[in-house]
Write a structure and sequence with these properties.
6 helices, alpha+beta, two-stranded antiparallel ribbon, 5-stranded antiparallel β-sheet, 7 strands
């Protein structure tokens, strides 16, 4: 099970925090600081898997990818496949790239609601829901269509409504 999804920059500023287990805010902040300290200074040539730490429990794993200035971190329990989660991170980043067409850190800051929506399409309640990029993109596109304001028919007269022009 996925316990949390964290996205933060090289300075440790959180850009997305999603916990699938209830934790108080102080524990969440401590966890973010500890994970940032663990992954931020690792060389890119090292493995992207870490065993659990004090804050999350020793039975958990930290799986991360470093893209440009952002770290995408998934904290999972021992039942998850490390390579599967690495692939899931790649799918999540590609889905964000399709939504924002060349995603950057500012997109995550100013459009956090869309980022959470994309994450919700990929992971729900700590379980992987969808990994097909076409289906994720279609769901996000459908949401955008629903979010568009409805056409204003108030300028049309009753005659237009009776003739079926609307």
């Amino acid at each position: 099970m996925i316990r949390s999804v964290l996205i933060f920059n090289q300075l440790g500023k959180p850009r997305l925090i999603k916990f699938y287990e209830p934790l108080d805010a102080a524990t969440q902040q401590a966890l973010l600081r500890e994970i940032h300290a663990l992954v931020a200074h690792r060389s890119d040539s090292l493995c992207n898997f870490l065993e659990g730490c004090q804050s999350i429990g020793l039975d958990s794993r930290i799986i991360y990818r470093h893209y440009a200035t952002l770290f995408f971190v998934f904290v999972v329990d021992a039942s998850e496949s490390e390579l599967g989660i690495l692939d899931l991170i790649q799918v999540f980043v590609e889905a964000l790239d399709r939504v924002f067409s060349n995603v950057c850190e500012l997109d995550l800051i100013f459009h956090f609601d869309q980022v959470h929506y994309v994450l919700g399409e990929v992971v729900s309640a700590g379980l992987v829901v969808e990994t097909n990029l076409k289906d994720i993109s279609k769901a996000v596109g459908d949401k955008k269509e629903l979010a568009k304001p409805a056409q204003d028919h108030s300028r049309l007269g009753l005659g237009a409504l009776r003739r079926g022009f609307v």
